[in-house]
Amino acid sequence: MGSSFSNEQIEHLPQHQTVQLQPLPGAALGYRLTRALLWLVGLLVATAAVAYLRPLDFAALRPWLPYVLPAYACLHILWQYLTYRHSGYAIREHDVMYQRGVIWRTTTLLPFARIQHSEINHGPLERLWSVSTLQLFSAGGFAADLTMSGLHHQQNQALRDVIQQYHNDEQ
Length: 171
Description:
This protein has about 170 residues and is α+β, with helices and mostly antiparallel strands. Helix content is about 45%, strand content about 25%. The protein has helices at about 25-55, 65-85, 125-130, 155-170, and strands spanning about 20-25, 90, 95-100, 105-110, 115-120, 130-140, 145-150. The strands form 2 sheets. The protein has a 4-stranded antiparallel beta sheet. It has a 3-stranded antiparallel beta sheet with strand order 5-6-7. It starts with about 20 loop residues before the first strand and ends with a helix.
C-alpha cells in the first residue's frame, strides 16, 4: 500500500495538425489517373456490351449516354486528382502519420512500437509508375491498420527499414 496512484490533468495537448505533411510524389497522381482511365475504359466496354446485347433496355437511355458517360469520366478523374492533392504523410521519430480524404479527412497515426509486420505491394501498374503500397499491421488485427498508397517504391522500402531498425533498437 506504499505506492500512490496519480492521474494529473493534461493542460496542453499536442497538436497533430502542426505536423508538416509531405505531399505524395507526382508519380502517385500518374498512377491514380492511369488506374482511373483503365476503370473508365472497362466501364465503357461493359456499357457498350450491355447496350448491344440488350438494345431495348437501353433505348430510353441512349440519348443521355453521350452526356452521362463523359460527365462521369470527368468527375471520376477530378476526384482522383483531389484525393491526390489532399493526401500526405509524415515520418516522425516514433510514428508514421498519413492523411487522406477530400470530404471526410482521415488522419492515422501509427506508433512504430505497435507495428507487428509490414507488406509492400508492387503490382504491374505500380511498377510502371515506380510507386508501391505499404501496409502496416499491428498485433491482433487481420486488416492493415495503415495503408499508404502512391509513395515511391524506394521510400516504402526505406520506411520499412526504419521501422525494422526501431524494433531492433528497442530489443
